[in-house]
Amino acid sequence: MPDAIYHFPQGFLWGTATAAHQVEGGNTNNNWYAWENAPGRVFQGQKCGLACDWWGGRWKEDLENAARDGQNTHRLSIEWSRIQPRPDQWDDGALEHYRHIIRGAIKLGLKPMLTLHHFTDPLWLYEDGGWENDAAPKYFAEYVRKAVGALHDLVDFWVTINEPDVYVTSGYVGGDFPPGKNDLGAAFKVMRNLLKGHAAAYKIIHEMQPDAQVGYAKNYRGFEAARAWFPPDVWITRFNNASYNDAFSNALVNGTLKFALKKEFVPEAIGTQDFVGINYYTLDKVAFKPFAVKDVFSRRFYPADSEMSETGFIANIPRGMTAALKWAHKFNLPIYITENGVEDSKDTLRPQYTIQHLHEVWRVANFNWNVRGYYHWSQVDNFEWERAWSQRFGLWGLELETQRRIRRPSVDMYADICRQNAISSDMVRKHAPQIFNQLFPS
Q: Which residues pair with residue 376 across a beta bridge?
């Protein structure tokens, strides 16, 4: 078999992604700290605790590893509750600490993509109704003005809000995230206020940095009708897609938020997106289920023949990445894969999963679609929200008791891709031989 190679566009960004609460440790003043300390809310009652000790300085080791292994960017977030511990108090020391981390990333050659809100809210806001409170967008705007004012000389690549769809559906429909509600009325109100918060943040950033690139990170969940010949399955699949994938993003185009069987015009949201950020992990088959009101009349499941992650959380379905990119392409903006990865403590599925998904990214880039970068989730194992430490997404493993980083074989796999800006036949032979004939057919 002759050697072959799939090249990515020149200047493509290669990185990993992290989030403040998941890696910093010691965040004791936000909604997730309260949630972790409520009985029965988090897997086996586990706590975030020290996390990956980034606040204590271990960020340097992780980002040095990333840079040494060929990455040229890193997506990280900042913690609102550190910067504004109380409504009338700002902590300039916390902002200086973030400046230190971001300067360190830049010195290592990692372009920072900075997320302003990644699932966590200050405890004072949470206790005052969180994003159900119509004052939340104003509070968020004040925080954004303070944070961007302190960091804009170092950062010009911003994510306003990570996965508002997950924040809303997990917190106000499914109840797995704080505040643990099942209330469609509250869900709509929160989605609307997040939309207003995003729009305000976009305008504040551009006021300070006219040339900044600003977007949000969208969790794209693929949905396919379980029975393409059965109209109710097709209808409920379209409904799931419209509610989950389209609601927030379409409002950035036309100003109309359609979600949870409600509709509202939010004109300030129009045109507040410079790029499309896609977090893609997996897709669902969807079947109509007439009496499942809580599940919006649908049953979602993975295809029976799917390769599954070790806890069954993710099915390896690369075609969903293509569907996500096709969805993003319609907005006619630059596209970044802001998260993609699989939980795999044994590191047996991760090489195959990553290469297969990146091959789909390459295919789309080869259509001359404007895909500009990829962020693997994650650089190191971290605290996975209500699933706590039961899932290991890191290229590098983490030994919680000692904070020792454990080099997994996928480190070398991803480093080869980053350094070559490509997927080569030699690379696939080495790291994922079981899919060689799929990617390089005779």
A: 16
